[in-house]
Amino acid sequence: MFIFIFRVKVAVRVRPFNSREKDRRAKCIIKMQDKMTMIANPDAPSKSHDGFKENNDGTFDAVSGSKFASQRTVYNDLGKGVLNNAFEGYNCSLFAYGQTGSGKSYSMVGYGPNKGIVPIICDELFKEIASNTKDNKRFEVTFSMLEIYNEQVRDLLAKDNPKGGLTVRQNAKLGMFYVEGLKNTPVGSYQEIEKRMEQGTAARTVASTNMNATSSRAHTVVTITFDQIIKDSIGSETKKSSTINLVDLAGSERADSTGATGDRLKEGANINRSLSALGNVISALADVSMGKKKVYIPYRESVLTKLLQNALGGNSKTVMIAALSPADINYDETLSTLRYADRAKKIKNQAVVNENPLDKLIRELKVYNRCFSYIG
Ligand code: ADP
Ligand code: MG
């Protein structure tokens, strides 16, 4: 078995100004040059990222000379790689980090015609499946969607959820955490996934804060399992599997900047608990990658880090989108997001192609038997 080392890939995306920032005459403090993102002193603003136009179908595209990144551009830069890795049999994870209103959900799920990276990946996945002409190959895809809210797991595709949420358990043999009883639905087309995703999105827990009236205060995790079953010339089957985790994290802002009180403040504390646990895990993993020995990785600190264990420090090719507001008024949160991203960039993961060993063994035995009968 080959083990490959991969760095976590980090992409920074800056959205255009929103109306609140325009009303407050905010200045742009983010500058991007090649692969570098710079945050400027709020007293020395730079050019904004607002140079986009609306096409006839309602999608947004960059106007010439602008640094606006369309949904297609983001898919081409990040999503395509995720899809290719899935076809090769690697586990993949993509997660969006950033303060509320910075464009995490826009990047992951999208709004209206501006579909995000998750629907585009799913669409392209089924297009690729449809273009397969080999009849010795079949595909199996499943879809699940959950949210973590106040440290409790809710199945977004289930009619009812138990009080206190679903239980997170650890597989005794493999050590991985999983959600017990989570609905994992087989899907046969992009339309089916789209339907499930709409159902799941509608079931999310939504609470408004001053920062963004519709933004969710929960982490949303979509998991797609993708199996390719390949029959060889002597009729035995090998399964290549990939688990794709797509995570839209809750807003990373500190509770005090959103004017939250009471229950909302408690939520904020819980969100920050899991996000700071995520930060601790990322830091520890970055230390390991830089050669530090005997580092304890605190996956158990939160539900989020338990479920992201494989995505962060295990068998996965991982991408993080750091979503930013361009505005000077968000300087503190933007700086903290960039610091987070910078730490995540240091993590190296060990990814393997997941091929079902049992089938492989059977195949090898059969070849062996055949050779044997030739001799006989
Ligand atoms: P978050 O999920 O981080 O709280 P959203 O994704 O909901 O934030 O984005 C907040 C608002 O900004 C939405 O109205 C969205 O349409 C807009 N927006 C975010 N990113 C972009 C972008 N890259 N281009 C255009 N509009 C965007
Ligand atoms: Mg959101």
Automatic annotation (TrEMBL):
Spell out the Gene3D superfamilies in the cross-references: Kinesin motor domain
Query: Where does the Kinesin motor domain lie?
Result: 7-347
Q: Which GO terms describe its cellular component?
A: microtubule
- Supply one GO BP term: microtubule-based movement
**Any GO MF annotation of the entry:** ATP binding
UniProt-listed PANTHER family: STAR-RELATED LIPID TRANSFER PROTEIN 9
- The identity of this protein, by name, is Kinesin-like protein
UniProt: ATP binding residues: G98, Q99, T100, G101, S102, G103, K104, S105
Task: Tell me the first and last residues of the signal peptide.
Answer: none
Determine the domain of life of the protein's source. Eukaryota
**Which keywords fit this entry according to its UniProt record?**
ATP-binding, Microtubule, Motor protein, Nucleotide-binding
Q: Which organism is it from?
A: Lottia gigantea
Protein family according to the UniProt entry? Belongs to the TRAFAC class myosin-kinesin ATPase superfamily. Kinesin family.
